[in-house]
Amino acid sequence: MSAAESITKFDQSRAQEYATQSRIALAGYDACHELAACLLSAHLGAGEARILVGGAGGTGQEIISAAQLQPAWQFVAVDPAQTMLDTTMERIARAGLAERVTPFAGTLDALPASAAFDAATLIGVLHHLPQQQAKKDILRAVADRLAPGAPFILACNRCAYESQPLFLAAWAQRWRLAGASEAEVEAKLGKIRQGAVPPASEAEVEALLQGAGFDQPLRFFSSLFWSAWIVFKRQEQ
C-alpha cells in the first residue's frame, strides 16, 4: 500500500464506523486517550498551551479528553483525510469545544512551523505508514514544530502481527465478543494482515523517536499489539 492509499482508504463510510470499531480493535481505547491527556496536563499544568494533534481525523478523543481537563488549552487538529477530519470536528462541536480547535486538512509537514507548539500527539498513525522513511519523516515533522523540552505522546501498533499469534487470536476473539460473525472476523483478520505495517518492536519505535530528536521515552500503556509513550523534544545544544 502506498502512502497515498493509506490516506484515501479512510473514506466516508470508514470515518463513520471508526469511533465504534476503534474501541473494539483497541482494548482500553478510552483509557489510553485519558492517560495521554493526564500526562500532558501533569507536565504542562493549567496555563495556556497550544497542542498539535497529528492524525486527528476519526474520533478526536485525544482532543476532547485534554480539552475537558484543561480549559485554557488550544488545539490544531491535523489530518490529510478531509472526511475523517470533518468527523472529528463534528464530534468536537457536539462537545462544545469547536472554538478551541483549528482544523488543518493536510499533512504535518505542510503545516507552517512559524510558532512552536507546547505539546503534540500522534495516536494511531505511525503503523499506517507503509515505508520506514515515511515513519521517520512524520516524527521529524512533529519534532520540528515543538518547542525544546516539549512533551509528545506517540501511540501505535508496535510489532508484526504474525510474530504474536496468541495476540492475533485474542484480537479475533475480541471481535467475536463484540458480536462479529465468523465471516466478519475473518475479514478483519485479513485486513489487519494486509494493511498496516507497524514497527517491528518497541525498541524500534524508541529508536525512531530518538532519531527524530526525542529523548526520555516512557511507555505508559500497552494492549496486545498497541503501546503508547510520552517523550520530550530534545533540548537544543
Structure characterization notes:
- The protein contains 9 helices and 7 strands, in the order H-H-H-E-H-E-H-E-E-H-E-H-H-H-E-E.
- Mean pLDDT is 91; it is low at 1-12.
- By secondary structure, the chain is an alpha/beta fold.
- Helix 6 crosses helix 9 (202-212) and helix 7 (165-177) crosses helix 8 (182-194).
- The protein has a 7-stranded mixed beta sheet with strand order 3-2-1-4-5-7-6, sandwiched between helices.
- The protein has helices at residues 3-8, 12-25, 29-44, 61-69, 82-94, 132-143, 165-177, 182-194, 202-212, and strands at 49-54, 73-79, 101-105, 119-123, 151-157, 214-223, 226-233.
**Structure classification:** alpha/beta
Integer average pLDDT = 91
H and E string: HHHEHEHEEHEHHHEE
> How far from one another are the termini?
39 Å
Q: Name the CATH class.
A: Alpha Beta
Name of the CATH architecture: 3-Layer(aba) Sandwich
Count up the helices. 9
What is the spatial order of strands in the main beta sheet? 3-2-1-4-5-7-6
How many beta-strand elements?
A: 7
Features:
45% helix, 237 residues, alpha/beta, Rossmann fold, 9 helices
Topology:
Elements lengths: L2 H6 L3 H14 L3 H16 L4 E6 L6 H9 L3 E7 L2 H13 L6 E5 L13 E5 L8 H12 L7 E7 L7 H13 L4 H13 L7 H11 L1 E10 L2 E8 L4
Parallel strand pairs: 1-2, 1-4, 2-3, 4-5
Antiparallel strand pairs: 5-7, 6-7
Helix pairs in contact: 3-4, 6-9, 7-8
